[in-house]
Amino acid sequence: MPIYRFIFFSAKHRFAHASNLLPRFGSSKRIQSCGYTKSAKNNYYKKPTGHPVVNVETQASRSSGAYFIPPILLGFGGLLAFLHYNDERRAVKIGKDSYTGSDTAVAPIIGGPFTLVNSENQIVNEQDFLGNWVLLYFGYTSSPDIGPDQVRIMAKVIDTLEAKKNLKVLPVFVTIDPQRDTPAQLRAYLKEFDPRIVGLGGPVSAVRQMAQEYRVYFKKVEEEGDDYLVESSHSMYLIDPKMKVVRCFGVEYNAEQLSKEILKELKKHQVNA
After folding, report:
1. Residue 182 or 3, more confident
2. Is this structure's pTM higher than 0.90?
3. Using N-to-C axis directions, what is the helix angle for 255-272 and 146-165, rounded to 10°?
4. What is the mean pLDDT of residues 213-238?
5. Is residue 136 left, alpha or beta, with left meaning phi > 0 and alpha meaning psi from -120 to 50?
6. Distance CA 251, CA 232 (A)
7. At what angle do helices 3-25 and 59-89 cross, to 10 degrees?
8. How far is CA 183 from the centre of its chain?
9. Which tens digit of pLDDT belongs to each residue from 131-160?
10. Side-chain half-sphere CA neighbours of 233 within 13 A
11. Domains in the chain and their CATH numbers?
12. Residue 144 gets which letter from DSSP?
């Protein structure tokens, strides 16, 4: 349930409870019905007849409740409207271009503009990749195990698609450790897997911004001076020629499985083009 709906129902329950409590704070009259009997000395004494005590609300208590509730309702209404607007702003409509076959689906925004430096020490941005299918991976050259495996899978996938299906997908590797991964380091590292892989790095702030755009988590762990590991989500993204993310893949895919899934997405694009 979206957060603004939860707040709405919670607020509704609290208002109902508050409205029941309002009469207690207004002024009221307590009226007790009594009977009288006459004594031998002609004195009268009061004897309760057993009728219940009745609370009579005054007009003031009712009117105070009427003026008290509307401002609170307006305040919570404004809060709910803001939360709804914020949720809508952080979502994007997915149409047929995203190959879902539905015009009403909603997904989080993934991807965005970036400006980085490639392994040839040239400044590049997202515009330089328009017109290409891109397989994007965030990693770092000092990764001991998962990183090299993922780059190896990436290299095998693009080779399979090009050799067997005559389909070209541009592999792009973005470092999440720009402090150590210089352009020269990226070039030497990626050449060991496939020289077609484009390496991107740059200032820490620029890399972090791009990682945030693509919802990539990473942080340094086990730091001992300049020696450390980088913990990350190890996600791989398939991006269409308009630089829109089509699909995200985790580490559970091997090269063969990933090739098949990417081929499915490319065929969907051909059908919907």
Report:
1. 182
2. no
3. 50
4. 87
5. beta
6. 12
7. 170
8. 32
9. 999 999 999 999 998 999 999 999 999 999
10. 13
11. 3-89 (no CATH), 110-272 (3.40.30.10)
12. -
**Residue 128 confidence (pLDDT) above 60:** yes
Task: Decide: 176 and 230 in contact? Cβ < 8 Å.
Answer: yes
Burial class (CB within 10 angstroms; exposed 0-12, middle 13-18, buried 19+) of 201: buried
The helix/strand/coil state of 39 is coil
For the segment 70-89, the average pLDDT, to the nearest whole number, is 54
Question: What pLDDT is stored for residue 124 in this prediction?
Answer: 97
CB 233 within 8 A of CB 146: no
117: CB partners within 8 A, 6+ apart: 123, 124, 183, 200, 201, 202
In the prediction, which pLDDT does 98 show? 39
- Tokens 């990183």 sit on residue: 147
| Token reading at 226 | 């300049």
Helix (H), strand (E) at residue 83: helix 59-89
Residue where the block lists tokens 């009728």: 51
